[in-house]
Amino acid sequence: MDLFEYQGKQYFSRYGIAVSPGDIADTVEEAVAVAERVGYPVVIKAQVKVGGRGKAGGVQLASTSEEVKFHAGNILGLDIKGHIVHRVWVERSSDIAKEYYVSFTLDRPNKVHLGMLSAQGGVEIEVVAEENPDAISFLSIDPLRGLDLAAARKWVDEAQLDEVAQEQAAQLLVKLYECYTKGDCDLAEINPLILTPENTVHALDAKVTLDENASFRHPEWEEFRATETEDPREKMAKEKGLNYIGLDGTVGIIANGAGLAMSTLDVVNQVGGTAANFLDIGGGANADVMASALEVINADPKVKAIFVNIFGGITRVDEVAKGVLEALQRVSISSPIVLRLDGTNAVEGRAILAPHESDTLITEPTMLEAARRAVALANA
Ligand code: GDP
Ligand code: MN
């Protein structure tokens, strides 16, 4: 789960990482009230889960309430790379002497944590990596040893952070590493981490991705989840316990097994169609699961045809066929359904469906033929 900047900053604060005083606002009036409270000048920042807000006009300085009204009015409702701004973060503006970059993430192939530190922050790190790769100092961190202050001090020196910033930065890096590990982050990034003219170091931005696999030990993540602007289809699927990812196309997909579901998307694409979703119903393709899957796909107004692609292994195709019929009695589906059933008990399964076949319930013998049929129906 990705956090908004303001949530990332709240998360950082729990680990003693310095951020600027500020608050969120959903309206221009609220933004002015926050600015009055934290004191001018302030910076008004669009809260969207996408980078490059500065360039898109989503980060503005304001010295008076008039300026806050003007900028907050412009930023609220702004479209930044397809994300509409519904909320701004207003914080006391900082003077910037230097902008640095720091992040921790997982280096999967090497089974270590990877720290990235650069004295050239403020710009996108991908740009630095391309144009000036030597300006990034990489640190592999053994998860069993962690990052101590001595190692952090060496690291800030290697990365050539300014002398006056080094001790504060080293201490901050240790705290950020704690936040990243104990806080179960997949990513903890600060860009820019700044040095002020008064020689203090603190975080101006926060990019945090939480590791959902660790959510069982973080009941406090619920508050972050509450603001998640989730795809309504994905939300519905999650509530039903389905492994679903929403896409933009017109062919709804139901398959058993992640690999088959992926191949199904490919085949649909190959024959000129577009998938509306990825959906793996796994091994438990019973009537309940099938009904839930059909319901979620049916709720998607873009879907024009549904392709059910089942290869029976442990899951028996006759059970799936019964499941489909039972599900169709429970849910009224507005798109035609094309089924390809193969594998264990495929013959029995097809026999169960045969008497029910119609213009809206069609079986095809192969995956390719079924894909063609579903795509033809979707494009009709
Ligand atoms: P991003 O563009 O989405 O990464 O948003 P950031 O939070 O990183 O802000 C973009 C840029 O705005 C930063 O790199 C800074 O140069 C500038 N900025 C952000 N906060 C302040 C501030 O408090 N004072 C000043 N002077 N500039 C700021
Ligand atoms: Mn940034």
Describe the structure.
This protein has 380 residues and is α+β, with helices and mostly antiparallel strands. It has three domains: 72 residues, ATP-grasp fold, A domain (Dna Ligase, domain 1, 2-Layer Sandwich); 128 residues, D-amino Acid Aminotransferase, Chain A, domain 1 (2-Layer Sandwich); 148 residues, Rossmann fold. 37% of the residues lie in helices and 25% in strands. Strands 7, 8, 9, 10, 11 and 12 form a six-stranded antiparallel beta sheet that branches. The chain has a four-stranded antiparallel beta sheet with strand order 1-6-2-3, with helices on one face. A four-stranded parallel beta sheet has the order 14-16-17-18, sandwiched between helices. A hairpin with a 5-residue loop joins strand 10 and strand 11. The longest helix is centred in the middle third of the chain and has 20 residues. It is elongated. The relative contact order is 0.09.
As a percent range, the share of helical residues equals 25-40%
State the distance separating the first and last CA atoms: 38 Å
Say how many strands there are: 18
- Per DSSP, the total helix count is 13
Which residue ranges are poorly predicted, with pLDDT under 50 across at least 5 consecutive positions? none
CATH topology of the largest domain: Rossmann fold
> What structural class do the secondary elements suggest?
alpha+beta
The main sheet comes to: 6 strands, antiparallel
The gyration radius over C-alpha positions equals: 26 Å
Rough shape? elongated
Number of domains: 3
Which architecture of the largest domain would the CATH scheme give at its second level?
3-Layer(aba) Sandwich
**CATH homologous superfamily heading of the largest domain:** Succinyl-CoA synthetase domains
Strand percentage, roughly?
15-25%
CATH class of the largest domain: Alpha Beta
- Provide the residue-averaged pLDDT: 95
Bound molecules: guanosine-5'-diphosphate, manganese (II) ion
